[in-house]
Amino acid sequence: MFTEDAEWADHAFCIRAKGHSGVEKHFSIWVGSVPNFTMNLTRCWEVPEGVVAMYDGKGTMTKDLPDLKAQGTPFEFQGFLFIQFEGSLIRSIDETYTHAYQETPDLDSYPVTS
Q1: Are the C-beta atoms of 89 and 2 separated by less than 8 Å?
Q2: Class for domain 2-102, per CATH?
Q3: How far is the C-alpha of 47 from the C-alpha of 109, rounded, in Å?
Q4: Where are the transmembrane segments (predicted)?
Q5: Pairing of strands 50-60, 74-86
Q6: By the 8 A CB rule, do 112 and 24 touch?
């Protein structure tokens, strides 16, 4: 799925994971902290350099991350991925979402201006 020198930049936590082992470790830390995390892809755009995807992330953080305490309450946030490929393999992922995702209100509760 990933090239040998793949890189995943998580801009919410200012973390870069490099290579298969780094990407695997980054992913396993997140899944260990939020075991019920789901990601629903809401939009996707093909661009010359790769793919941009927008998603809704949901879950409950039950275990502390290295830089963030678990609150144990359900959360929901919107995130974006920029994925670049090398052939059919992922060469890099740049991911961004709010670092304060445990405090973010439900997307449906945002005030609407018209």
Answers
A1: yes
A2: alpha beta
A3: 31
A4: none
A5: antiparallel
A6: no
